[in-house]
Amino acid sequence: MRRIRVPGDKSVTQRALVFASLASGESRLRGLLPGEDPQATAAVLRALGVDIPPFGGDGAEVRIQGVGLRGLQAPQGVLDFENSGTGARLMLGVLAGQPITATVTGDASLQSRPMRRVTTPLSKMGAVFREMGEPDRLPLEMTGGALTSLDYDSPVASAQIKSALLLAGLVGGASVRLSEPYRSRDHTERMLGMCGVPVVSHQADDVWRVELRDPPEQIAPLDLEVPGDFSSAMFFLALAILGGVEGGVEISHVGMNPTRRGLLQVLGRMGANVGADPFKEHDAREPSSSLRGLPSKLVGANVGGEEVPAMIDEFPVLAVLASRAEGVTRITGAGELRLKESDRIRVLADNLRSVGVQAEELSDGLEIEGSDHPLAGRVSSHHDHRIAMAFGVLGALPGNRIEIDGADVADVSFPGFGVLLEDLTAART
Fold this sequence. Notes:
Layout: E1 2-5, H1 10-22, E2 26-30, H2 36-47, E3 62-65, E4 79-80, H3 85-96, E5 101-105, H4 116-125, E6 128-131, E7 140-143, E8 150-153, H5 159-172, E9 176-180, H6 187-194, E10 200-204, E11 207-212, E12 223-225, H7 230-241, E13 249-255, H8 262-270, E14 273-276, E15 288-294, E16 302-303, H9 315-323, E17 328-331, H10 344-354, E18 358-362, E19 365-369, E20 376-380, H11 385-396, E21 401-405, H12 417-426
Parallel strand pairs: 1-13, 2-12, 4-5, 8-9, 16-17, 20-21
Antiparallel strand pairs: 2-3, 5-7, 6-7, 9-11, 10-11, 13-15, 14-15, 17-19, 18-19
């Protein structure tokens, strides 16, 4: 069995950079993901006056002296988040509570993604936004300041919306009460707890409620080791399940946040031979464990409903698994996939068909019929890192020949993905 480790969690890294910048005191962060998205967020925070040292892939400790909740400086130029939707939406919340004016933009991919789902509730709190291009899109100019409390019913379960509003309330000194149809990933709530800020979360009346009451004037610094990225680990777990790694794989120190590990339940229904070492659940800190995957014979499954938010980033790898399973896998209730770095529903369906898989695009999901036939063809990543990695795994399986246009976009969340993939598959006899 091959033993590997994946880079730090992208979602946790992004939030750690933000919270460390807003803390009163010095934060110590280890295992930060050096991918393009966190680097873009770090560059924006530097432009706002935070001294963030360079960080690479060695996992070495990074110390950040926070400037306090309202200590960010007005930027001299445009704040460019490049491809980082998480960074942009989280920082819209932070900037909403700062008494400064800033212009926020991103690359072509980020400029195609909706922003009113965040700016509309932030406007209700008192932030002012001016769209400078297409409606509901970046770039935009915003002015923040002291905010008023908010009671908001989110139409979708989105950790980015929730996080933006919680950060706005924290920085702007306003209580926030949010409901969402299902529970979304809770990294922000956990990190608030680590910084000494209590957040109340509970199920009520068929919705999930999150409340930030009477936010403090300052937050404590972080002492944090970022666990390995669960989403990144799933690509290599899938590779092992589908027989692409001789003897299977063990992936150490993988984040096991309960709002992220929905794919493991689906894999169980599909018949995958996977396991995890025992681990402790924490109220605030992120749990982690070692994961193991062995070659398995999979069957199709139905996926939808409340399990979707807990695996929203894993649908590209699920599509790959489904293409090699016996029978049909049907995914519904996943319309949010159309609003990611690419329209993942359309792109997955098109790419699967391009290599010989029967796949049907649904309005809110996919229907995929698996087979064991060799697959071959050319696909496009559409500048989407998870699409690139998913088809990298599919192409690395014995008998398959798949070319990927734009495969290097994997560096957004997983620097060195291609090298590790080649290393694991080169050992096959």
